[in-house]
Amino acid sequence: xxxxxxxxxxxxxxxxxxxxxxxxxxxxxxxxxxxxxxxxxxxxxxxxxxxxxxxxxxxxxxxxxxxxxxxxxxxxxxxxxxxxxxxxxxxxxxxxxxxxxxxxxxxxxxxxxxxxxxxxxxxxxxxxxxxxxxxxxxxxxxxxxxxxxxxxxxxxxxxxxxxxxxxxxxxxxxxxxxxxxxxxxxxxxxxxxxxxxxxxxxxxxxxxxxxxxxxxxxxxxxxxxxxxxxxxxxxxxxxxxxxxxxxxxxxxxxxxxxxxxxxxxxxxxxxxxxxxxxxxxxxxxxxxxxxxxxxxxxxxxxxxxxxxxxxxxxxxxxxxxxxxxxxxxxxxxxxxxxxxxxxxxxxxxxxxxxxxxxxxxxxxxxxxxxxxxxxx
Length: 376
Known about the structure:
It is a single chain. The protein has 376 residues and is α+β, with helices and mostly antiparallel strands. The chain has helices at 9-16, 28-33, 86-98, 117-125, 142-153, 188-194, 197-209, 221-235, 242-255, 300-314, 336-343, 362-375; strands at 3-6, 38-45, 51-61, 68-72, 101-106, 111-116, 139-140, 157-159, 172-177, 212-216, 260-267, 270-280, 283-291, 319-324, 348-352, 355-359. The chain has two domains: 3-109 and 141-168 and 354-375, Gcn5-related N-acetyltransferase (GNAT) (Aminopeptidase); 179-317, Gcn5-related N-acetyltransferase (GNAT) (Aminopeptidase, 3-Layer(aba) Sandwich). The chain has twelve helices and 16 strands. The strands form two sheets. A nine-stranded mixed sheet has the order 7-6-15-9-14-13-12-11-10. The protein has a seven-stranded mixed sheet with strand order 1-2-3-4-5-16-8, with helices on both faces. This is Lipid II:glycine glycyltransferase FemX.
């Protein structure tokens, strides 16, 4: 059974560099972004003292108590194909219990199901289908099914993806594969051909209208943030402060200079769209986006997405991840517009195993659950 012990930021960073990829939420830099949480890097080591796993643990202390929720967003990073997950998770639980955790929340980075663009379009068009899960998936992952079964057997509890104490990471995401079935890199032409006609037309229109997409610098974050706040007011969500994005830029760039990229789309000098992209090894994410209410007709949002996809292809990424979608396919639901925008890229809907809790102190965990319900 692998042993678990704290590791340094350098050990953590060096181990992740040996892997094809890992979630950016499991990188050492992310601890600096989430400064309101106490953080710790831990590693798994085999009998030969070789490191075989890693995790970023974020501790959120309960009010007035010296006990914390230990949260491992989109982690830990270990061999999830193992048929004996207890050998990995039990030493983790023992370590976190000693650190004062009353419960542990993990987010196994394991795919369980996939749906094609065609399936999603058909589901939205069918009034009898309201949820993605009502459609038989194009692919079921045996490893994902085994992980879910083992977690249930080991006493872990599956959590709803929305809201809550740890904010929660999306269980359903939308991704554009950038590798062919044989593992070769897809070409820009192949990815563009996979997009729907509207996306291709909008990308072409942006070029014709003279939209210019460039990489921004840290100094451009203030301009990004101004447009982001404008977007937040329009779309009715609470914006993060500028300092959050400055910290993200600094922390992730310290881990790897290519990890964080700000993209800016301008039309005749006006900023019409801006985005933040993150890449860890072979996985590229669209993380944050902003767009102007004016000049929507020049299609800056399509142009900037295409620039990010092209950059991911050039970097040798295996996947371009547009992050979360809801499970709804109800044409009357306001969230379906986001899915339709992402579906236009020609990718696929992907379900992960979701987030799971292991209660350590059951009375405290029960009180914690009641606290969450009261918060709504």
